[in-house]
Design brief:
single chain, 24% helix, globular, 5-stranded antiparallel beta sheet, 7-stranded mixed beta sheet, alpha+beta, 6 helices
């Protein structure tokens, strides 16, 4: 692409001047390198971790995605996890995945990126992935200890930073805009929006989140294919329901819901 950028970091002292939060990010736990920020945040949750703690690292060596897949943590990326201890029953924890997606989409738009949400929580520019989000419930003996929201953002990553099999499917803030971004500033903007959406969800429930998600979705209205293990379902994506499941209309006209699966956009319906 003919671009090169200086080394950049997102250390707490660099992030805090840009924060507008009241409770999120008051405690930062920073490492130069971690296997996975989610793994570290889960350990923190089981010891001294508090609601709103942020775990971040400059380099992540074993990032994880949904369904136990690996997440390639490209050079120039931003890798962090937020520990939450929400007053939510376990069956509503899945809502936080969509809360996070809405927050990240709004943050990216503040940063000048025309990002859209691919169900349930991938952030795309066009059809290329920019951000991955992994939400994990921490429970022991049937008791919820917390929720970890892990977010990986390709910030100043360039095409040559990705393996060959990902180059056509991934993008970054820098690739989308041809500009350099301060990772510290990007993290602060993300946390500002995340706190705002989490507060909205806590006070008003899932309906305003669902409405915002719908407006920011790249999936609704399209024909999609969803892989559910060995099963494949196709249909037109109509909406998300009261718990965030994707409602599809099959070729027979019948509607059905999918709570989790790997989705492929086929064409406009």
């Amino acid at each position: 692409m003919g671009m090169s950028f200086p080394d950049d970091s997102a250390r707490p002292a660099e992030v805090k001047p840009f924060l507008r939060t009241t409770w999120l990010g008051k405690n930062f736990f920073h490492w130069e390198s971690l296997a996975s920020t989610n793994t570290q945040a889960k350990l923190l949750a089981q010891t001294t971790g508090c609601h709103g703690d942020v775990v971040l690292c400059e380099k992540q060596t074993q990032g994880r995605g949904r369904r136990e897949r690996s997440w390639f943590s490209a050079p120039g990326g931003l890798f962090f996890s937020v520990l939450l201890k929400p007053h939510l029953p376990a069956h509503r924890v899945s809502e936080l995945t969509l809360v996070s997606a809405v927050a990240v989409a709004k943050a990216l738009r503040e940063l000048g990126i025309d990002a859209w949400i691919k169900w349930p929580n991938d952030l795309l520019v066009g059809e290329k992935k920019l951000v991955g989000i992994l939400t994990e419930l921490i429970a022991e003996g049937g008791k919820t200890q917390g929720v970890v929201v892990g977010i990986g953002v390709n910030v100043n990553s360039l095409e040559e930073d990705f393996p060959e099999d990902l180059k056509t499917r991934m993008t970054s803030l820098a690739m989308a805009s041809r500009k350099f971004y301060s990772k510290a500033f990007v993290l602060a903007v993300l946390l500002n929006h995340l706190e705002s959406e989490l507060d909205l969800h806590a006070s008003e429930g899932f309906i305003p989140i669902r409405n915002a998600w719908t407006m920011l979705s790249s999936t609704l209205g399209k024909r999609v294919r969803i892989h559910l293990g060995n099963e494949v379902q196709e249909g037109k994506a109509l909406c998300i329901d009261s718990i965030g499941a994707l409602v599809l209309e099959g070729d027979d006209g019948k509607q059905f819901s999918i709570l989790a699966g790997d989705i492929e956009h086929l064409r406009l319906a």
